[in-house]
Amino acid sequence: MIFLVLMLVAYLLGSIPTGKVVVKRTKGVDIQDYGSGNIGAANVLRVAGPKASGLVLIVDIFKGMLPVLLAKWLLVSPIGQVLVGTAAIVGHVWPVFHGFKGGKGVLTAVGSLFVLAPLAALAAMVTGGGIMSKSRYSSLGSLTGTIVGAICLVLLIMAGKKPSGYLLHAFISTLVVVFTHRENIQRLLDGKENRLASGSAKKRRP
What is residue 93's three-state secondary structure? Predict the structure, then answer.
């Protein structure tokens, strides 16, 4: 019963549309009408600037961290911890509070990974941030960081530093992030992906 409550809490927490709320309060506009239309931190940067984007980044990471921290505190099994984190990621990508249209799950996945394996999460953020900074492609940084984090987690498990149940997180997080970035991957391959720039978002056509 406690596990099911944790799953529900994690999903509802993940479902909070941080980007939409922050942009509405700071700019007075609907983020879905600008840029990519996505409510994640990258599009918030394009629409509302770095401060708003930074706030969304922090909150979205904590949406993944808090339910997993609670699961660990309540001595939920390693697989159970991963499933609770997965519920938060699913909530972020398919939020009940926002018509099941949310972000791409990267930051919430990193947040849950920070609780499970801080070293792997740090590697993911440093790598992803570095790639994003150099290339100005948010999607490329997100995909690379997620894969690096998953590889680091697998290596930690193989070294006996983390429980084998955490392997599920490496698989699920990579699968979800690749799935949510499938259109970005195609645009990267076609050379048509938009670069990341503060305040660069244009109003979307109706």
Answer: helix
pLDDT tens digits, one per residue of 145-187: 999 999 999 999 999 999 999 999 999 999 999 999 999 999 9
Structural domain includes residue 33: yes
The pLDDT assigned to 47 comes to: 87
Angle CA(43)–CA(41)–CA(51) in degrees, nearest 5? 100
Question: What are 126's strand-pairing partners?
Answer: none
Residue 114 CB coordination number (10 Å): 23
List the one residue out of 151, 172, 38 whose CA is nearest residue 95: 38
Answer yes or no: pTM beyond 0.70: yes
Number of domains in the chain: 1
Which residues does residue 203 pair with via DSSP β-bridges, in sequence order? Answer: 34
Q: pLDDT tens-digit profile of 48-96?
A: 888 999 999 999 999 999 999 999 999 889 999 999 999 999 999 999 9
Contacts 24+ apart (CB under 8 A), 72-77: 72/115, 74/2, 74/6, 76/2, 76/3, 76/6, 77/165
Residue 58 domain boundaries: 2-190
CA–CA gap between residue 103 and residue 44 (Å, rounded): 11
Among 48, 121, 112, CA closest to 82: 112
Task: Compute how many other C-beta atoms are within 10 angstroms of the C-beta atom of residue 4.
Answer: 8
Is 199 contained in some domain? no
- Residue at 197 is within a domain: no
Q: Is 201 domain-assigned?
A: no
